[in-house]
Amino acid sequence: MMAALRTPRGIATALILLVLAALPLLTQAFDQRYLLSIGTRIIIWSIAAVSLNMILGYGGMVSFGHAMFFGIGGYAVGILSAHGVSSGWIQWPVALLAATAWAALIGLLSLRTRGLYFIMITLAFAQLVYYVGSGLEAYGGDDGLNISRSRFPGLIDLRDKASFYWLCFALLCASLWFCSRYANSRFGLVIRGAKSNELRMTALGFPVFRYRLAAFTIAGALGGLSGILLANEGAYISPAMMSWMKSGDLIVIIVLGGMGTLFGPLYGTIAFFVLEEALPPVLNLVHKGWGEYWMIVFGPLLVLIALYARGGIDSLLGRRHD
Amino acid sequence: MEYLLLQVLNGVQLGLLMFLLAAGLTLTLGIMDLVNLAHGSLYMIGAYIAWTLIGVTDSFVLGALLALPATFLVGVAVEIAVIRRLYARDHLTQVLATFGLILFFNELVRALWGPGGKSIAVPAFLNRTIEILPGVPYPAYRFAIILVGALVAILLAWLVARTRLGMLIRAGASNRRMIGALGVNIELLFSLVFGLGAVFAGLAGLMAAPIASVRIGMGDDILILALVIIVIGGIGSIKGAFIAAMVVGQIDIVGRAFLPDMLKTFMSSSAASSAAPAISQVLVYVLMAAVLVWRPTGLFGQRT
User: Fold this and answer.
1) Do A232 and A77 touch, CB atoms closer than 8 A?
2) What interface predicted TM-score (ipTM) does this complex get?
3) B29 and chain A in contact, CB less than 8 A
């Protein structure tokens, strides 16, 4: 533990976690409430990215539909809330169960395919969920639905921005801890082994399909958790939270941060949101009015990252020892 | 009965448009093993360039004809600048890089043409109805789309099956490195095929423009549908893409045209009319999932 703190990676990660832990105090001290809401979204997206990293980064399963779990978690909370069930003790387990069951079902079907077909079938299932969401006229259809936040009476008030932030942060830390246990367990090693050589793992007698299905299901559940949080963050659900562009953003985040690394998803999410917030003002400094078209810079940046920086931010922090 | 016929024709028209988009996509996937998410951007660029050129030339046909070589040039430029570097990479890199291209093109179009949508008017000589059967009128413009789409499909089938270029394309699809070793200029071939795919996408975009509208991101959703089509058809198979496009076109139109009435029997009419398009979209994805479960490489895909 102390040895890890002496590497550049350890120092950077510890600093980031410290700043994130203290963010509500910092934003209050500097009177920057807006930053806290960005911070909350960074944390929630990081949880989603951690869950995608478990299958994409460690397992090589390129799911192009991970934002569907935002939708499933979010809609489960939203639909229950619309029917007057506001207790988080009911909403959250139901939402997690829904995400888990759905992940198990589509994993069962999708994992039969390989490569490009897997990318496409996960995308197709995500689109399916998206269109179901946009067809639910009773829950706002395309326009989405304002919901009330989950209630945990006597425990925590999610309407309080700082408490909600700390809850999300605690859940992120738990996700990271869980992911590190996963990655270094026998189970995780089978998943990682199957990424580099599926045939060999099969020949060694591992039922690769079942291992992958389990990993896919766990990742779906964790993705569902991020959906629950996202719905509570904005007190709003809409099909837009699971559009395929969001799934693309999640893949971008994973690659940007460093695939198959523990903290890569966190670095990636921070970098992604910082770029999104910082590029427009920076471009406006270069030439007034350019900031509006920041994606003209961001798009090619993604191309360059895809082509030349596959190790992501994590690789900038020196070599890894695990 | 007449209503059914008209809707089937609408389905054929939609299917042909999607086939044009899917054809370029399946060629690049089959031959170069490249996932190109930015294909929808070429669809959009084709429509925007056509809008400008139609305004300049004051003629739909002339503007459309000029827009095709322009889209070809855009396609070749993209191929040389970015796509060329992606052939040897894995699918994840390709998805990521071409996702970046989508963001770039959407924003570029917004910078060049402004955020508002554009509309292209139906050309005067097609702005009427024709009788496809005695007493059954059908919009001439939609009929023209069917004709052009069918012509291009036949042209493409001829090109792939009967010409030297087509021979190289098929050879490339089955063994890329071998035709390189045989002295074929693969770089040129790939650029040409990519440009050709861009032209088809642009053609689909500009033909769809008078019916839908020219707007930013118009290619993003239809791209996913085109990807679904080539996956159902089997990657690299023009025949598969054609059949899948026809089926998807019918599902979409039938869903829009007939589902509301069926749903109204057991739900309120406003709920039925908003649920129907969603259900028809869902049906398309259910079809794809079913095909992949049944045949993991699509209907006409190469077995591995």
Assistant:
1) yes
2) 0.86
3) yes
